[in-house]
Amino acid sequence: MSKTNRSVSSCKIPTNKSEANLFVKIKNKNEQNSRQFKINVYDQDSPTKELLPVYVGDKLSHIDILGPGAERDYRIDVSGVENKVVFQIIQETSGSGASMGSSKNSKGPAKIELRIK
What we know:
Layout: E1 5-14, E2 21-28, E3 35-43, E4 54-56, E5 59-60, E6 63-66, E7 71-77, E8 84-93, E9 100-104, E10 111-116
Parallel strand pairs: 2-10
Antiparallel strand pairs: 1-8, 2-7, 3-6, 3-8, 4-5, 4-7, 9-10
């Protein structure tokens, strides 16, 4: 029986006060395996760490699966956030954990790209 590991990758993302939404693109850089993960996003200044709404298209969802080499855009409602959000990807894996890298898209301050390996 294989051991299941929990991999939590997180980063802080600044928000733009003039934008009600933060757009994040997640890419599965693994060309052989699908990745199932949970997305948690909350205001870094929140004492309760209440989760912010995460949307795939118009559907509210905090859990998703990306196929090998796939990518998807997520919209996060940050209308009540003053400074930064904490963005987490949580994976339950039977092998080694995953890492998360990020880069800002030059098209605007509210567009972030994350890559899971």
